[in-house]
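Here is one chain, start to finish.
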Amino acid sequence: MSAYHPLTEREAVQIARSLNSLFPEDAKLICREIGDGNLNLVFHITDGARSVILKQALPYAKVVGESWPLTLDRARIESEALMLEGRLAPGLVPAVYKYDGELALTVMEDLSDHVIMRRGLMEGERYPLFADHISTFLAQTLFFTSDLGMNQQRKKQLVREFINPELCKITEDLIFDDPYTDSLNNNFEAHIRDEAQALWHDGPLHLEVALLREKFLTQAQALLHGDLHTGSIFIKPDSTKVIDPEFAYFGPMGFDIGAVIANLLLNFAAREGHDKEDVARAEYRRYLLDTVRELWTKFEAKFRALWESDGIDRLASAAPGYRDDYMLRLLRDTFGYAGCKMIRRIVGLAHVADIDRIEDAAARERAQRLALSIGRSIIMRGRSAASIEELTGITESAAAAFHA
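Its structure:
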C-alpha cells in the first residue's frame, strides 16, 4: 500500500495489523470510520481489549467537496505538532505511534474513554481540573516555542517547518474576513440577517478585526495549535487531551487562548437551550465564567513562572516593565481573538453544536444574538482591557440585558 488514496476500512485494518506492537498477530480486529469533521477520515480499530485511531487527511474539505482542495502536508504538520506538544506538555495530547507521509496518515492513541468536551458541556458536565490542565498546555507549548523560551535561531528554522499557508488561508477568510462582508461562505439563519448586515457595515468593528488579522498574518510569536476549540479537546474529570493541531503554525499566542475562551462563552450563550430551570442555568453559567477566570489566571501565573525559571532572552527578562507589558498585550489579544471566534461561529461557514442543536427556534435565536453581542463587545474592549474580569463582566452584562 503506497500511493495516496483514501483508505477503506479493510485497508485501515491491514495497517493496524502491521503494527505488531499494538495488536497480537491473531487478533480479530473491528474497524469503523468515525470521522465527523470536515477534513479527514478517522478510523477506530479495536480487538475488544486494545484500540487505536488512524487519522487520514483528505485532499479536500468534506464540508464543501472536491472543489475545495487542501494540501495533504497538513497531516505531517499535525503529527509533528502532536509529538512536539507531547514533549512540551506531557500527558495532555494523545500519543503518536506512527506517521505515514505518503498516505497522509497518523496512527495515535485511542481516547474512547474520554468525551469530546463540547458534548460534555452541552450535557452540563463539570470538569474541575480543566482550567489547570489547559493552562499548563497553553503555557508550556506557547512559552517554549517563543523567543522567550526557545533558541531564536532554532525557532526560525521551526517556523519554516510549520509554514501552513492553505489552512491559514481558511482561518484568514472564515474568521477575519467573511463574517464582515456579504460573502457566499457565510451561513446564518434568516432570523438573524439583521445582525449579519449590521456586522457588514460596522466600521469601528472592522478596524479592530483588521488589526487582529494583521497580527495573525505577521506575528510569528509562538507555535499555535491553530484550532483550539472544545471540539478539539477530549476530556474526563481527571484527564484533558488536546487533539487535531492540523492548523498549527507560528502566530500570536492570544489566538489559541482566545479560541478556548470563546468556546466556553459560546456554551454560556447557549445555556437557555440546555438548562430549562433558571437556577440551574445561572449556576452553570457561573461555572463557565469561573473557568474562564481560572484559565487566564493560571495561564498567566505559569507563563510568568516559566519566564522566570527558563527565559533565555536577557533583555526581555531584564528590561523594566517589559514582562508586564508583554502579558497585558497577550490579554488584549485574547479578548480580540475570542470575540472573532464567537462571531464567526454564528454567521460564518462553520457553527457550533452548542447553539445549532437548540431545538426551540426562539431560544436558539436568543443564543445567537447573545453570542454576537458578547463577541462584538469583547473585540471592542480588546485594546483597552486590563483584566480578565472585564471579559466576564461584559458577558454577564450582555446576558442580563437579554433578559431585562
